[in-house]
Amino acid sequence: MPFNVIAYYESQTATALAGMAAVSDTIHTTSGDDVTLWNNETFCFGAYCLGVSTPELFQLRQITRPIPIDLPNVQLGGVQMGTEAGLTDLRFNPLPLTRDKLNMFVRNATAEVSAGVFFVGNENFAGAEIPDFVVYGKADPASALSAGVWNSVTMNYENSLPAGYYRPISLQVSTYLEAGAKPVAARLILPNIAWRPGVPALKSLADHTNNLVPTEIKNFGKWKQMPELTFPYDQMPKLDVFTLTADTDVNCVLGVKLVR
């Protein structure tokens, strides 16, 4: 079973823990700080959290959960920190969710932007298969990406896939803006498929340069085959990209398995 990426973004002073606004989404109902989960989004498999300058603590909360879950790994938006900074990997010890609304809370020290995503589904998606093909995609959107929202981006893939049907099993995404902060996350848009699987995104070192991806982030972007995510060779995936700044270039590395 696949998984989805859910996003939150808000500029605020949160010296006490405060809810972050849910990012409007084409696949989830959002209202204020709330995201309404699907019936089959029963586990949280991870979180990725960023703050611009003074992030202190993020939390996962649900009304039906009496004790909030701390997410201590935080990434600074303007710098590339340690290999695991920002990522809380729960794939091998997933957190059960109730059929309820899902919230992300933050505490910081100044009026600043905070952002984060949850990876939710009902089955561990971790995988270690070797792709049959790897395709490289780049995009220069006609206008810069909008900060704090999901931006649909059509990728220009440098190499074509042979005729057939494929499943994505690995993904890396980076964006670039010379003076920009780090991006937050990206997720695949597959033709006629509601699921939006994705990964934490990285800041490119230069225009259309694919980074050396930190090990923890790279492993989180390795997935087992998920039959629901099958797509034809002539309908390549787009990307939904979520950033802190108006980035101008998008890069991806997509690994796929040929299924028929």
Low-confidence stretches: none
Order of helices and strands: EEEEEEEEEEEEEEEEEEEHEEE
* Morphology call: globular
Span of the ends, CA to CA: 19 Å
Structural account:
With 260 residues, the chain is mainly β. The chain folds into two domains: 3-121, Jelly Rolls (Sandwich); 133-258. It has one helix at residues 215-220; strands spanning 3-12, 18-19, 29-31, 34-36, 43-51, 55-61, 69-71, 75-76, 87-89, 95-96, 101-108, 112-121, 133-139, 150-153, 156-157, 165-176, 183-189, 198-200, 202-203, 231-232, 238-243, 249-258. The longest helix has 6 residues, at 215-220. The chain is globular, with a radius of gyration of 17 Å.
Outline:
With 260 residues, this protein is mostly beta strands. It has one helix spanning 215-220; strands at 3-12, 18-19, 29-31, 34-36, 43-51, 55-61, 69-71, 75-76, 87-89, 95-96, 101-108, 112-121, 133-139, 150-153, 156-157, 165-176, 183-189, 198-200, 202-203, 231-232, 238-243, 249-258.
Features:
1 helix, Jelly Rolls, mainly beta, 45% strand, globular, six-stranded mixed sheet, six-stranded antiparallel sheet, 260 residues
What layout of secondary structure does this protein have?
Layout: E1 3-12, E2 18-19, E3 29-31, E4 34-36, E5 43-51, E6 55-61, E7 69-71, E8 75-76, E9 87-89, E10 95-96, E11 101-108, E12 112-121, E13 133-139, E14 150-153, E15 156-157, E16 165-176, E17 183-189, E18 198-200, E19 202-203, H1 215-220, E20 231-232, E21 238-243, E22 249-258
Parallel strand pairs: 5-8, 16-19
Antiparallel strand pairs: 1-12, 2-11, 3-4, 4-11, 5-9, 5-10, 5-12, 6-7, 6-11, 13-15, 13-22, 14-21, 16-20, 16-22, 17-18, 17-21
